[in-house]
Task: inverse folding
């Protein structure tokens, strides 16, 4: 039987003549940090102090002891970052140039000093650029010339920390006669029968040995002969339980095991979990344009999504436990789709396993983002090899529902001046419209492919046309108020978002000793977007008076504005289901402490946006929308059962008086939206009035004027505390109340975000991690809107 031995011990990193202890898997930065050679690049302005690391060559070494007892021994690297040569006792085993691939070298009968020598990623990228010519990109760094995680070269939310190292596990595999080289599982459902077809490739040490494969799933077994180096086995599971996304049904998973046999003696085994489900992408043309609707097991769904970036700029530090926490946060917020963005990586098995278990649909970008990518060698062969390997690697996962060719490159070619600059040079179109769809069609015909995001489906329409396919909404945030989200109804919004700073405790940890201010050197160093603070200010001033010189107020209002902006988009687009079939917020997570579009900051703390997503992505949502015919109350019901009830509508003054009220019955079918006209007598008029709509414990608020014009009363409320809870009772209108629990203790967390209370109402906020409850301290950490100053 094949035996695998991890190679994790005894590694060193060569640095200026010294041998530093090295952790494998890991990277140069984390080893230098552990050895005290570099400061933590996440703190202060240390990022620039360690820029030299990415410009150097690095060597990892360990001893490889002799092994016996099998006919062949292979040295297997699951991931090398990025350009390296591998030597054993000075003998060259091979060279690598792709972070997104695994590598295998025959070391049968060999032993001695194993060296992995990494060339600077900058040196490789510049050499390729010199050979293939200049290609435009959104950033100055040369990430498009090397098959490496693009965002390690920096992004508008990430630091420039260009890594090198053995970033995924390495092991010795010893085997005899034959081994399983690849298993390609096609999992389908045919008239209620779950079907698993396993195409098997083997590598032989003995060409003449008769081989068979035996597979089992769900109590069903099957066996087939291996002809030469390939075989296939089909299993059928009657009445298979379906795998559903969260909120639609159970996440039923089945263990599949395949064993390679020689004369009934097991040689090697392959084990995975699969789920039976069907996935389609409805891209049919209709009176609104061209659709983009996911259909799972015949059920059409509005995708409630978030964009995912690598959760650490040093991805070797991301553990299964960290995936469980971060993706668990997504699921708890009502998310049912996670898009893995194209400037990152193909994630580890732990990521997809967790999504399988949680019922989170996965949209997987191929790693191309915001640049023109050359299509010549040496890149073209690497792109095909990585695509073939990762398509097959990820095929078992039922959560994976879409392959996407790239992020924003088709759009960039059309709108960002690339076409003229390229003057006919290759730029990636051949990948997105040729190579990649061919690979997916050949290897994984069970899943849809789309050429890019955004993409209208063909060059007959603008790549980012909101009426066709996927749309990225970035005019809002970059140039427009978030009210601009309501100007159109895209078929599927794959990116949109608004910035806010991270939690106070996250900033305080990241900027030790610095007096926090919106424009302080450290805060600006942790703001990577072009004119990011300027856009934050302009976006805020459309709604609030800017709090000059008051960091705490600035920090709070920016958090409010982020939640308000994202809510404006999602409420509008969800109310237009099924024309709009999904929203994917940019972004769920961060890779370090930074001001960004994230809902969960770089230290894992939830921003108010995160808690707002729990409301926006709930199965049932009430929202007030302005339509041509007047003010409408949309009852959005994504649950599997109809929703009927009575709407209580109150026209109120900011002083707390009820001016008028009405009750209106409504009924919404399953997976549908019902709009109810707001009676004229309860439509608010002027800056002093607003509308409150309640039904089944849900509430929608509508203020017709921007906050800077509303004469809010000075908020008055009472605060009481108990173990694990803070209760606030309002004596006036209290709008957008927020407990910043991390100001009480860096370990403290609140279980909810912004809350608006009418006079006499109360809210109890659960607080964990706060060991010394105190009402005065709680009051000091409570923020809400105040009269304009």
Result:
């Amino acid at each position: 039987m094949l035996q695998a031995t991890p190679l994790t011990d005894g590694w060193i990193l060569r640095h200026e003549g010294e041998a530093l202890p090295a952790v494998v898997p890991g990277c140069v930065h984390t080893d230098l940090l552990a050895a005290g050679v570099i400061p933590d690049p996440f703190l202060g302005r240390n990022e620039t102090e360690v820029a030299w690391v990415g410009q150097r060559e690095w060597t990892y070494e360990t001893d490889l002891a002799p092994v016996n007892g099998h006919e062949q021994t292979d040295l297997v690297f699951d991931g090398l970052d990025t350009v390296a040569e591998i030597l054993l006792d000075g003998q060259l085993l091979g060279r690598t140039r792709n972070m997104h691939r695994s590598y295998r070298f025959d070391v049968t009968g060999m032993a001695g000093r194993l060296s992995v020598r990494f060339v600077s990623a900058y040196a490789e990228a510049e050499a390729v650029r010199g050979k293939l010519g200049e290609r435009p990109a959104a950033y100055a760094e040369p990430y498009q010339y090397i098959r490496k995680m693009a965002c390690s070269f920096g992004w508008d939310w990430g630091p420039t920390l260009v890594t090198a190292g053995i970033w995924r596990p390495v092991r010795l595999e010893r085997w005899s006669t034959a081994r399983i080289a690849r298993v390609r599982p096609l999992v389908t459902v045919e008239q209620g029968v779950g079907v698993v077809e396993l195409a098997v490739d083997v590598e032989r040490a003995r060409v003449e040995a008769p081989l068979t494969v035996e597979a089992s799933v769900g109590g069903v077994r099957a066996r087939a002969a291996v002809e030469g180096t390939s075989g296939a086995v089909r299993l059928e599971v009657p009445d298979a339980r379906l795998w559903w996304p969260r909120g639609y049904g159970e996440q039923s998973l089945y263990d599949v095991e395949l064993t390679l046999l020689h004369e009934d003696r097991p040689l090697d085994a392959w084990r995975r979990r699969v789920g039976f489900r069907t996935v389609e992408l409805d891209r049919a043309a209709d009176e609104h344009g061209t659709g983009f609707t996911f259909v799972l097991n015949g059920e059409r769904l509005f995708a409630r999504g978030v964009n995912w970036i690598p959760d650490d700029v040093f991805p070797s530090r991301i553990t299964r436990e960290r995936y469980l926490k971060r993706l668990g946060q997504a699921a708890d917020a009502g998310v049912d789709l996670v898009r893995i963005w194209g400037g990152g990586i193909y994630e580890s098995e732990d990521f997809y396993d967790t999504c399988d278990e949680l019922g989170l649909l996965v949209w997987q970008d191929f790693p191309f983002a915001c640049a023109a990518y050359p299509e010549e060698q040496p890149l073209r062969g690497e792109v095909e090899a990585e695509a073939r390997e990762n398509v097959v690697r990820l095929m078992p996962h039922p959560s994976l529902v879409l392959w996407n060719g790239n992020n924003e490159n088709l759009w960039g070619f059309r709108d960002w001046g690339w076409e003229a600059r390229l003057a006919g040079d290759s730029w990636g179109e051949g990948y997105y419209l040729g190579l990649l769809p061919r690979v997916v069609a050949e290897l994984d015909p069970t899943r849809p492919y789309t050429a890019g995001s955004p993409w209208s489906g063909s060059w007959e329409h603008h790549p980012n046309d909101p009426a066709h396919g996927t749309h990225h909404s970035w005019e809002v945030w970059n140039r427009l108020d978030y009210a601009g989200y309501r100007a159109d109804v895209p078929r599927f919004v794959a990116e949109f978002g608004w910035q806010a700073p991270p939690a106070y405790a996250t900033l305080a940890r990241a900027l030790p000793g610095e007096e926090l201010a919106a424009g302080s050197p450290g805060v600006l160093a942790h703001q990577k977007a072009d004119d990011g603070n300027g856009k934050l200010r302009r976006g805020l001033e459309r709604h609030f008076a800017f709090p000059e010189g008051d960091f705490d107020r600035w920090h709070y209002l920016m958090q409010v504005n982020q939640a308000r902006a994202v809510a404006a988009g999602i409420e509008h687009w969800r109310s237009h289901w099924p024309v709009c079939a999904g929203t994917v917020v940019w972004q769920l997570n961060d890779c370090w402490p930074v001001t960004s579009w994230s809902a969960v900051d770089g230290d894992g703390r939830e921003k108010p946006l995160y808690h707002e997503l729990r409301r926006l992505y709930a199965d049932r949502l009430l929202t007030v929308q302005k339509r041509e015919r007047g003010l409408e109350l949309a009852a959005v019901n994504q649950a599997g059962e109809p929703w009927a009830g009575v709407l209580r509508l109150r026209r109120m003054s900011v002083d707390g008086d009820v001016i008028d009220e009405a009750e209106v019955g409504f009924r919404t079918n399953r997976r549908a939206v019902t709009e109810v006209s707001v009676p004229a007598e309860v439509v608010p008029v002027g800056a002093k009035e607003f509308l409150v709509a309640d039904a089944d414990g849900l509430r929608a608020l509508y203020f017709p004027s921007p906050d800077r014009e509303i004469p809010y009363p000075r908020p008055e409320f009472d605060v009481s505390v108990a173990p694990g809870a803070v209760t606030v009772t309002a004596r006036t209108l209290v709008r957008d109340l927020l407990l910043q629990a991390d100001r009480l203790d860096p370990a403290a967390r609140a279980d909810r975000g912004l809350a608006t209370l009418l006079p006499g109402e109360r809210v109890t906020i659960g607080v964990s991690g706060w060991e010394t409850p105190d009402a005065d301290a709680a009051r000091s950490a409570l923020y809400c809107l105040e009269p304009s100053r």
Q: What stands out?
A: The longest strand covers residues 178-190. The radius of gyration is 28 Å. The chain has a mean pLDDT of 97. The chain is about 20% helix and 35% strand.
